[in-house]
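Morning - INI inputs below, output right after.
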Amino acid sequence: MQPKVHQGLLTAHGFRFAIVASRWNDFLTSKLVEGAIDALERLGADEKSVEVFKVPGSFELSLTALKAAQSGRFDAVICIGTIIRGETPHFDFVAGESAKGVAQVGMQTGVPVLLGIVTADNLEQAINRAGVKAGNKGFEAAMSAVEIVNLYKTMGGGENVGKEKVFPHVV
Ligand code: INI
């Protein structure tokens, strides 16, 4: 059997992207945002098709992503932040809730919401994931955004963009 395989092209042309970025650990988070913009530019995103929304911390990413998704102005929302374990006893709570919230926005709206949050045990790990030894998580999240919007376009998912409660059973 030769099943039909669907996969998204890596072209950003014609799509609109929101980047929602936390200000925490800004010296690293700003590198992730730069990586995301670099990926979108290199994949052909149109001038003025990318907007950045800054929030205080990663915990605020999901509600802001929800508002961006609900606006109907974006094909995908890329959430970016850096959470470092050494800096807070609330690490597990902040990291867990941030990731859960981001996932929920995608399920609730049908708009792809990408997780570009670095969660690291220490500063060195975080630095390595912001473009030093272990890639740039912002770049990777933006690449994934472009792939997934193209995949959903082939699946006819485009008409769901910006509409709320595509999956009404998910609160
Ligand atoms: N937010 C982060 O994005 N990264 C962190 O490492 C972090 N630490 O360490 O606490 C952090 N906390 C702030 C949190 O995201 C909220 O902004 C805050 O609790 C207000 O709601």
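Note: Residues 22, 24-25, 56-60, 81-84, 87-88, 90, 94 surround INI (CB under 6 Å).

O.
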